[in-house]
Amino acid sequence: MTRAYPPIRDYAAIGDGRTVALIARDGSVDWLCLPDLDSPSVFGALLDAPRGGRATLAPDVPHRAERRYLPGTNVLETIFTASEGTVRVTEALNLPGPGLGPQRELARRIEGLSGNVPMVWSVAARFNYGRGRTRIGWRSGTPVVAAGNQAISVCTWDAGRPVVAGEAIFGHFDAEPGSRALVALCTAEQEPLVFPSRAEVDERLDHTVTRWQRWGRSSGYGGPWQDAVARSALALKLLFHAPSGAVAASATTSLPEEVGGVRNWDYRFCWVRDSAFILNALLQLGFMTEVDAFFWWLMQASQLTHPRLQVLYRLNGGASATERTLAWEGYRRSAPVRIGNGAVDQLQLDVYGDLFQTAWLYSRSGRQLDRDIGRRLEAMANLVCDVWARPDSGIWEVRSQPRHFTQSKMMCWVALDRAVRLAGAGQIPATYVRRWREEAAAVRAFIDERCWSEAKGSYVRAASADDLDASLLLGVLFGFVDPRSQRAGGTIDAIRRELGHGPFLYRYSGEDGLDGGEGAFLTCSFWLVDALARAGRTGEATELMEELLGLANDVGLYAEEVDPDTGEFLGNFPQGLTHLALINAAVAVDEGQRR
Amino acid sequence: MSFSGALAGGFVGTLVLTTLLRAASELRLTRIDLPFLLGTIVTADRLRAKAIGYLLHFFFGFFFALGYYAVFRALGRAGWFLGAALGLVHGVFTASALVNVLLPVVHPRMGTPLSTIDSETLIEPPGFLMLNYGRGSPLASLVAHVAYGALVGGLSALGH
């Protein structure tokens, strides 16, 4: 019988700076793309339980599981408790250590704590989104699964004799007190496999714990929510693509925004929109190596389409993201499963504001922009002057007709405002400053005249519209409107009143060109905390923040959305933007409390 | 027939052979990575192994070109087709004996039928016709070696 899809909330993520594995509470690795996060999946049961492939490890008897990350790390520890006894599983995608190691290495250490617990593990790899023809062979007694130019060796020690059954490999063993077994999945693409020794896998697992702890210690946040902020920083680090510095929006594709619905998107790209949040969070936490890596990746990637900005870029900096669908049933039959993202071709004007805000934050941190980047930003600011009056698809990438979205216009104003400031700081040429000022004033006049509703006492979703949009909070966060002004207060209250559902916020009201609905967007709730803190309403902000922190799953991770009625996670997971918004909100409240 | 032509053939032929094998890898036909295999004889550091592996690969490219040249001299003629034929023999020898049998013997990190995974880090052995690295490996290797041979033969003959 096919296993039912676990709730998204049941997943924990481990990673190595190249890829991320999602492990369900029942010990099943249901998502892993190889060799990189945006490569095709090898384990994809998350999106097609019968055909996606997975790697399991759990007691072979009824049990319950409690999980945590080892403190300050992305190494997962699960305690399985059965009536027969207790077992501890420690698992990670090992970070490279000294010496020759496999290309990627998923290590699972099993320690018997008490009693005698029968354990079972299995590996059913399905390469290339299940499209590859899997062959199982043996090398010196070690089973190897291969398809095309990819292979995985299943190295085990004291974990029972591997047995091949059909297209999977299984093993059974008993975990006794003091016993220590090890299962390592060692992967290779376009190269021969490397078979590590037991001592090396063990050593690398310990080394991985140490490396994560060392990284986490460099965080500079000293506010009241240190655990949540530290976990968010670690979750974010999982989404960093180590070779380039890019940050993926999420580790998954097509986890649905509505179960059974069509709103299923591939988030394994880096969105320009996230850049300002990423840089702000990294700067607040003092991760300067990542600040430099990300900024330079962004500048390099955007060079491909200069002066136009794409909405998103590939993690390697490429500009192509052609959208296709897989013949998979989807998470709980939420089809289609998409790879690639069609939003890449949309006009979304807000990204210019995000990029300029990023450059401004980078410059304000004491970094110098070189002349070439200065000239590119100058050309981009001129482009904003030319295009701001056009309708666009907006921050939420709606698939309905383009409109004059208010938040897009606000971010165009942010772009021109930051361009003027950067020119004033001598970071970019000042030749067109007058034009930028005039156009910024025109954008502001457009917003204030056509995007404000006296009836609601709030900015509205689009010009001459009645709908509301939680992204208008970004007008407060990015300084378009004074946070303590009447207009800011009115907008905050209206959004909470009309889009709120307890601590949750829906993204917008009104049409978006897609069938079905969606959950509440967690990022927006954290933006609300941020806006309240900036508006001096720190009591409300703190209360809401506490409530939101209680919504994380058992290991402190968040998805993109949540069903306000059931608390069920929806959308891709773990979601970088949610964790970024959490960090920035925590810092804003902390600053608000100290003012 | 010219010696310098053979050397040039060795250089260009190795370039083409490497590119063809890489293309086959991109096409998901094989996991052959000759620079990785050669470099890890010398070092366990992945990056260094690749760099050293490329140098060794080119060295062997020149070395085999000299062998081809010796055969051409013995036969008293050289040419594209003769080179390709030699490349075919070379390719069969590489897949069946050189990489399959001899490399594991000299490679300090390569598994043999006698090794167990408890000993130390081991690189996957190529197996007969390098089939361990994918079913397309023999074909990819053969085509690449025929191209190599043709270039060595053709460029050697240009010295007339």
Explain what the structure shows.
In chain A, helix 3 packs antiparallel against helix 14, helix 12 (522-534) packs parallel to helix 14 (576-594) and helix 13 packs antiparallel against helix 14. Chain A contains 14 helices and 28 strands. In chain A, the strands form eight sheets. An eight-stranded antiparallel β-sheet of chain A has the order 6-7-8-9-16-13-12-11, with helices on one face. Chain A has a four-stranded antiparallel β-sheet with strand order 1-2-3-4. In chain A, strands 5-10-15-14 form a four-stranded antiparallel β-sheet, with no helix packed on it. Chain A is an alpha+beta fold. Chain A folds into two domains: 8-195 and 207-214, Distorted Sandwich (Beta-galactosidase, Chain A, domain 5), CATH 2.70.98.50; 226-594, Glycosyltransferase. The model of chain A has no long low-confidence stretch (mean pLDDT 95). Chain A is globular. With 160 residues, chain B is mainly α. Chain B has one domain (3-157). In chain B, helix 3 crosses helix 5. The radius of gyration of chain B is 16 Å and the shape is globular. The termini of chain B are close together. At the A-B interface, strand 11, strand 12, strand 13 and strand 17 of A face helix 2 and strand 1 of B.
Supply database-style keywords.
heterodimer; A: 595 residues; alpha+beta; Beta-galactosidase, Chain A, domain 5; Glycosyltransferase; eight-stranded antiparallel beta sheet; 28 strands; 22% strand; globular; B: 160 residues; mainly alpha; 69% helix
